[in-house]
Amino acid sequence: MDRSLFNNLVEIHQFCYSIGMAIGNLNLKGKAVCAPLAGISNRPFRVLAIRGGAAMTYTEMISSEAIIRRQKRTFGMMAFQPEEQPLAIQLFGANPEVMLEAARIVTEECHPDLLHVNFGCPAKKVVAKNGGAAVLKDLGLTREIIEAVVAGAGSTPVSIKMRTGWDDQSPVYLEVGRIAQEAGAMAVCLHARSRAGGYAGKADWSAIRKLKDAVGITVIGNGDVASGEDAARMIEMTGCDMVMIGRAAIGNPLIFAQVNQYLDNGTMIDPPSLEEKVCLVVDHAGMMVEEYGESRGVMMMRKHLGLYVRGFVGASEMRNRLVQTKTLDEIRAIFSEYIALQTTREDDDSNEQ
Prior knowledge:
The longest helix is centred in the C-terminal third of the chain and has 25 residues, at 328-352. With 353 residues, the chain is an alpha/beta fold. The chain contains 15 helices and 10 strands. The strands form 2 sheets. It has an 8-stranded parallel β-sheet with strand order 3-10-9-8-7-6-5-4. Strands 1-2 form a two-stranded antiparallel sheet.
């Protein structure tokens, strides 16, 4: 596999930057940010997202309690390099005093480009601690938390992410958007589903439109954006300033370049060739092994492998093999074998014609 193919692939986003947005004093290139994803948004994934054209990346959710207790693993999750920037560190918690101190520690010691407060996570283990989307049930606490993080962040801009509400019967996103603006946040991201809605059904983009009309800070739309056309349609329908892409980026970090170019001039980037896509997934696997060691890195990589091979001939059989891999060499061998097989088939087809 020619390494230059991968280099050309990840540099494709460099001409897609005539559009951009500012969040406070942070200037971003492009209008598509890579959503924070539990178990996914580690360093290798963030690097690939930035190379692929993401305007910004986020860490996984970081517990404010763990920060003030200075847990080693937590600080490891917040560590980053310039190739992952612009980067936001994402906090969650339910105690304003703890959130203030955590924000101060993070900004003074980690120096992120943005501090991001999560009011959207629906996971039981998070809401059980009154974090994530659970905070939306107490708007007074919501205000106190945002004010505390803004105070602790100093000159670092603060954003929040939320759901429309705890459930479909209690939408609070407009109130929370106004609270965020009054408390000093510079951006608000809305996943246009309630906590109870999870990821089911269609996101209600009309809620993003209403939020944009209600506040004067940057609004980032989230939910069901899986292509450049989706992003353009969301921006047109809602007036949002940027889009956040999460699940659609797993196995396709180049989606950000695709979105940027489509928003920039309405054209589509040619999809990567088979060889280019294989180079991308093998490089991702190599980065995971470098970051976490072979055993853990390959285990963590398995959740990506099946999505990388979407659309491949014989994808189901490949997934079955890939989810059983234990070493980087096994991953490389499966993809090398696959390319050789497809090349042979193409040659056979050509000879028959």
